[in-house]
Give the backbone structure.
Amino acid sequence: MGSELIYRGSETQPSSHSYSPKSVKPWASVTRPIHYLLREQRLLFVFVGIAIATLIFTVFPTSPAPYVAPHSRFTTLIPDSITYFPIETQQKFSSAHRLGFGSTNPTGKIPLGLKRKGLRIVVTGGAGFVGSHLVDRLIARGDSVIVVDNFFTGRKQNVMHHFGNPNFELIRHDVVEPLLLEVDQIYHLACPASPVHYKFNPVKTIKTNVVGTLNMLGLAKRVGARFLLTSTSEVYGDPLQHPQKETYWGNVNPIGVRSCYDEGKRTAETLTMDYHRGAGVEVRIARIFNTYGPRMCIDDGRVVSNFVAQALRKEPLTVYGDGKQTRSFQYVSDLVEGLMRLMEGEHIGPFNLGNPGEFTMLELAEVVQETIDPNAKIEFRPNTEDDPHKRKPDISRAKELLGWEPKVSLRKGLPLMVSDFRQRIFGDHKEGSNTNNASSS
C-alpha cells in the first residue's frame, strides 16, 4: 500500500483538469430521437393520441365561420341542430320564435326541407277547459308538454288520452308554490275563470293570480323562457267604452265580489310588464273574452254552459236581470290559435282574443233553444252584483299584428259543445266520440 504513495519523478502524472470530448458518432441527430421514441413504448402513445384526435374531429366537425351580411344586425349560425342564434344578445327579446331551450330564431323561418325542432313547454292549468285544448295542439305540433294543474277546476280526463305519450308529462302542483323546470315557453293559464269557482275562495283566487304569476315569472327569468299570461276581458270591468280596445283602462270595482278575479288579473298584468321591463323577461299578454266548447265544466256558472246543461236536463234557462246584457262568444279552437300566434309572434300585447259577434243573453238562449230543445222555457232571476252590461272586443290589433280572427260562428260551434255535454251528462259514448273527433279537427 505504501509503495503506491511513492513519487516517481520519471513518470508523467495525468492532469485531473484535462478534458477530451467523445468523438461525435455519425447520424446521431437521427438515431437519438428514434431511440427515445422506442424506449418505454413512447411511440405507441403517440399513435394512440393521433387516433383519438382523428376520432374527435371526425365525430364533431368544426362549424364553418358565420356569414355576416353587410349592414346586418344579426349573425346567423347553423349548427347541427339547425337552430338560429343572434349574436347581439340585446336583441334577444325581439326574436320571433323559440326553437329550442335557450335559443331564438330572429328570422321566424325554418330552412326549407328541415324539420322543426320541438320545444319544451309548460302549461299551467293544462288539465282545464282551454288548457287541455292548447295541450292537444302543442302535442300535435311535435312539442314536449308539461302540464301543471292542482285539479281544482281541471279534470284528469281532459288530458288522459296523452298518457303514455313520451312527449307528455303531468304534474299535480299548485302554482302558488314554487316549481323548478327547464323549459322554453310557459303558457300561464292557471286560475279559476268562472264566477262560481273564483268566488268560492276569493283569497285563494287572488293568491293564484298574484303569487302564482310571480312564481311562473320567476321561473321564466331563471331559465330564459318566454312567458304568456292569459288575462281576461274582466280587466275592463263594467266598461264605459264599447267595444273595448286594449288601450282602455277599464271600470272595475276594487272592493266588489268579483274583484278577486278582476283585480287579480290586473295585478298579474302589472307583474308581467314589470318583469319584462325590469328583468328582461320575454312576455306576452292575452285578454280572453267569453269562450265555449267541449270540456267546459258543466255547472260552472258561465252562461253558455248553464244554458246548454239546463236545456239538456229539460230545466228552464235561467236569465239574470232583463237579459239585455251583451257578450261575445268565441269557440275554443279559435282561442287556442290566437294564443299560439301570440306566443310565436314578436308583439307583447296585450291583445284582445274574442269573437266580435255580440249577443244578448236572450239571443243566446234562443240559439240554445234552436240547437237543443225548442220547447225549453226561459226563467228570469235577479242580476248578480257587478255584472257587466256590455262586453265586446275590438280585435283590430290582433288582426293587424297577429293575422288572427275567429272563424267558428256560434251556431256552428255550439252543436259540438252540446254533443260533449250530452255524453258527459247522459253517458252517450257515441256522441262523445264524435265530439272528440270534431273538436280535435
Observations:
- Residues 120-440 form a domain with the Rossmann fold fold (CATH 3.40.50.720).
- Residues 146 and 169 are 5 Å apart (CA to CA).
- Confidence is low (pLDDT under 50) at residues 1-7, 65-108, 429-441.
